[in-house]
Amino acid sequence: MSSPFPLLRLPRLVLFDVFKSLDIGEKIKLSLCSKKISTEINNARLYSQKVIVDLDILRRKIRVRSEYNEDIFDIVNCYYIGISRDTQHYQIGGRTVPVISFTKGINKYWRSQREGFLSAIRHLLKMFQCKILTDSSIYNTDSQLEFNMLTIRPNGSKNQNLVWNQIFRELELVEDFSISSILPLDFKPVFTSWPQNITIMNSDWFTLEHLLACTCTRIRLLQSHLENNCLDEVLRKWKAGGFPNLEYLNIHSENIAFTGTTILGMHLMELDGMVIQTDDGSKKATVKAEFGNIGMSVTPSQ
To answer: What does the pLDDT profile of the chain (302 residues) look like in tens digits?
Structure first.
């Protein structure tokens, strides 16, 4: 019978190479074996593979995967149902948790679904360079977590509206934020914080006042109701030094017309291809304009 291999006695750089050779599931399962080996894996995070973490709240599942899905591992967040003979206990998020292992994943049992999700995410963030994505009804955010992408699909329920209002208070934690469906008429989001980038697929409810207050770097509004006079006000504010973070703006609206109110004193066709500058000369923007659409890309002036 062979003797156990003294893994933790290896020199640190050699140990890091061993961790790099493991696939996603092997590394996660190994991290659960002991606090000491979990600490060593966390120390090797910058040498680790980059992973995408998909949060599927509806199916109570976290999928950890490589960029092109060659390597996939599922963490199923189950409700606590007692002990089975296949259950082992591991430390996750500072708590001892019942876990059942299977080939490409684990089932972990928590009394609180929210606690189960957040503890697993924190555990993964220490191990990997994570890009966190979700298009599900995420019901709570956490000040220690930053989401690369968050997509919401409101359904109009009272409880969900309360959740979205909480999320809108913590959008600075999100890099890319997307609202992908039509909001209920009685739900009016109040943006008390802004993400880095925002995309709203059905933005008829997103008013000029919303846009003038927006501090995002990239703004994309589809199916908007904004008109020429709104865009004139937006571009004049930008020229005067407003929207200091703005790098890209794109607005689709059937109310953007060739005729009617001019924008910066020009009709839409005249504005297309125009390079405009801020009043202080520090930035310039190339404008692309056509019926139903206007966009601009902002760069520092040379």
So the answer is: 466 777 888 888 888 888 889 999 999 999 988 888 888 988 888 778 888 888 776 677 888 998 888 999 999 887 655 556 667 888 776 778 888 888 899 888 877 776 777 788 888 888 888 777 765 444 444 444 555 666 666 655 565 566 566 666 667 767 777 776 656 656 667 788 888 889 888 888 889 999 999 999 999 999 999 999 999 999 999 999 999 999 999 999 999 998 778 999 998 889 999 999 999 999 999 999 999 999 999 999 87
pTM of the shown model = 0.59
Distance of CA 38 to the CA centre of its chain: 26
Provide the H-helix boundaries in 172-261: 208-213, 228-239
Cβ-in-10-Å burial (0-12, 13-18, 19+) of 31 comes to: buried
Rounded CA-CA distance 174/3 in Å is 48
Judge contact between 208 and 230, C-beta under 8 A.
yes
Write out the H or E segment, with its range, that includes residue 288.
strand 283-290
Angle, helices 24-31/113-127, rounded to nearest 10 degrees: 110
Contact call for residues 95 and 125 (beta carbons, < 8 A): no
Q: Which SS3 state, helix, strand or coil, does residue 169 take?
A: coil
